[in-house]
Amino acid sequence: VQLQASGGGLVQAGGFLRLSCAAFRSIFRFNVMGWYRQAPGNQRELVADITMGGTTNYADSVKGRFTISRDNSKRTLYLQMNSLKPEDTAVYYCYALYGSTYWGQGTLVTVSS
After folding, report:
1. In this predicted model, what pLDDT tens digit does every residue of 82-104 receive, in sequence order?
2. DSSP letters along 31-73, please?
3. Distance between CA atoms of residues 15 and 36, nearest Å
4. Residue 111 CB contacts under 8 Å (≥ 6 apart), including other chains
C-alpha cells in the first residue's frame, strides 16, 4: 500500500492548512486511517484517526481545531487544520491499517508566531 502525503507548508498562527494523503489503491477496506506528527526532539504522537465506519478520534490538543475525513471515491484521507498554533509545528505522517500498518512520507507543517 503506497500513501502520498501533501499539503504541508508555512502558515502564521491562527491560519489553516489541509493535508491530504492519497492512496494508490482503494481505501474502502482500510480498517483505520490517520495522522501522526513528530516535532523535533519529540516522539511521534497520534493526531487523529478515522475508522472504516467513519468513527473519529482526536488528540486532546487538536480537538475542536482539526477535522479528519476520508473520501473513499478519491482514495484520499484529509486533515483540515484550523486555528493553527506554533506547537502544531511538526512533520505529519499519514498511515493506514490494513492487515499491516502502512506509512506515507512526512509533510512538514510550520506555524510561525
Report:
1. 999 999 999 999 999 999 999 99
2. SEEEEEEE-TTS--EEEEEEETT--EEE-TTTTTTEEEEEEGG
3. 20
4. 10, 11, 12, 13, 15, 84, 85, 86, 87, 88, 89
